[in-house]
Amino acid sequence: MTPHPPGPRGLPYLGSLPAYRRDAAQFLTRTRYEYGPVAKLRMGPYTFTLATGSAAVQHVLIRNKENYCRGQLYKQFELVMGRGLLTMDDDEWRPHRRVMQPAFLRSALAGYFPSVRERTEQLLMRWERHALDGTPVDLVAECLRLASAVIMDVLFGFDIDDRAARIKEVVDQSIDVMFPHGTFQEMLPLWVPTPRNRRVKRNREQLLELADDVARAPAGAGEMTLDSLLRAAARRGEEGWSREELRDEILTIYLAGHETTATAMAWSLISVANEPAVRERLSEEVDRVVGQRSVEYADLESLPYTKAVIDETLRLYPPIWLFPRDAINDDVMDGYRVDAKTSVLLSPLLSHRDPEVWSNPEAFDPERFLAPSGRPPQGSYIPFGLGARQCVGNAVALVELQAVLAMITQRYRLEILPSSMLRYGDTLISLRPMGDVFARVHVRDGNGVA
Ligand code: HEM
User: Fold this and answer.
1) Whose CA is nearest to atom 37 of ligand 1?
2) Which of 53, 114, 300, 381 is 20 to 30 Å from 13 by CA-CA measure?
3) Residue 187 has what pLDDT?
4) Is 391 annotated as belonging to a binding site?
């Protein structure tokens, strides 16, 4: 009989739950190194398979994808996002993705660029005061504000800025709910009036209010914007989307689209600030290609090193560092048994640091993405997932990240203050830097060093 994969035994009854709760990323990393690319984990009553090798990742997301559904862990996401592209299973998902896909095609990107640039210029202007008086900026908060404004502006023509601070709090609390911490409270159904459940409901109501405002706002220009595609889907009479479907898709795009991008943006700026050789090469490229004029969409393909910095950021600090599937039937993966109705965990963080694929995996080295040896094997670089359910917004995110990095590099050099805690770890959320990261802003003279 096919064996189960090897894995830590953990404690009686609890299995590895305490270790996971103490520091999920560190515990899973250790498990990967001790037990290999497919490992079995027991956490309380649940069994998980941790699949980090490229063959196992391909198996789940491409070759035998029919056997894997979103599963139990994605149900947590539904408490916040409702049923949208991210949480739906394939039958329900396919027609929704078909409706929304045109807004994310490469041909749409050039049209989004002016908004990305305008919002980034607002950030650069805000930072002028900090550059003058030497007060540091709160980097993660700034990135969240920018990414939130961009996604709402670009895809819905909606200005969220005046309520950004209030929504940020709701989003932070909601995201915390989406990722299980393995507590008893989480196991209680939503109708039990625990403080956690009351908070979940209150936050969901506030997010739905926001989605309603977006749906009610005057329609933006153009037939292929996400805004008009969603409105058209909702207008299609009997066959059309319900108000709930429309609201859930708006929330899905907003929540899935801005927090992830902001996290990557923050890590790219931190990494560049802390790696003088990378900073020098990046500044040289931006100065040579763009100089003092405005960054244009057409410039992006002439900024390969800037793009490589983003690729490398997404390798070392993938914002979605862990995502799940549930096996529908018993399966054999990479020679090991996976039981029906158990969860499989895919981890960009672990796959991206696999020493069998990546040389010197812990180093921040954008050059690896420019090397002629080309891209790593399929399944070993998955910041946006893989296969049919790959991130719908990946091209939008990449354009935004590359443009923002180029524009900030053109104007400023950042100095990360030593008090900032530059590690991730006890967060089960996305891979945000832990705690606050403060940066001092220095104006560059445009001819090299600041
Ligand atoms: C750096 C930024 C981003 C990262 C790292 C990221 C990561 C991911 C990952 C890993 C998945 C796959 C999850 C799975 O297979 O279970 C995913 C799916 C998704 N992402 Fe992103 N994402 C980013 C930006 C965006 C943006 C900008 C949007 C929207 C504009 C977006 C919307 C979505 C949606 C709707 C899905 C579900 C797609 C589907 O199943 O059809 N994401 N993302």
Assistant:
1) 86
2) 53
3) 63
4) yes
Q: What are the sequence ranges of the domains in the chain?
A: 17-443
Is 403 a pocket residue for ligand 1 (Cβ < 6 Å)?
A: no
Residue 16 pairs in a beta bridge with none
pLDDT in tens, 340-360: 999 999 999 999 999 989 999
C-alpha pair distances (Å), 143 with each of 46, 65, 127, 139, 164 = 36, 35, 12, 6, 12
- Looking from the CA of residue 389, the nearest atom of ligand 1 is 40
Q: Is the pLDDT of residue 256 over 80?
A: yes
Picking from 113-127, 191-205, 211-225, 430-444, which range would have the lowest pLDDT averaged per residue? 211-225
Inter-CA distances, 180 with 21, 22, 162, 328, Å: 10, 13, 31, 21
Alpha-helix runs per DSSP H in 86-187: 90-100, 106-133, 139-156, 164-178, 184-187
Q: 17-443: which CATH architecture?
A: Orthogonal Bundle (1.10)
Answer whether 273 contacts ligand 1 (Cβ < 6 A).
no
**Whose alpha carbon is nearest atom 1 of ligand 1?**
261
Rounded CA-CA distance 125/144 in Å is 16
CB of 385 within 6 A of ligand 1: the answer is yes
226 CB within 6 A, ligand 1: no
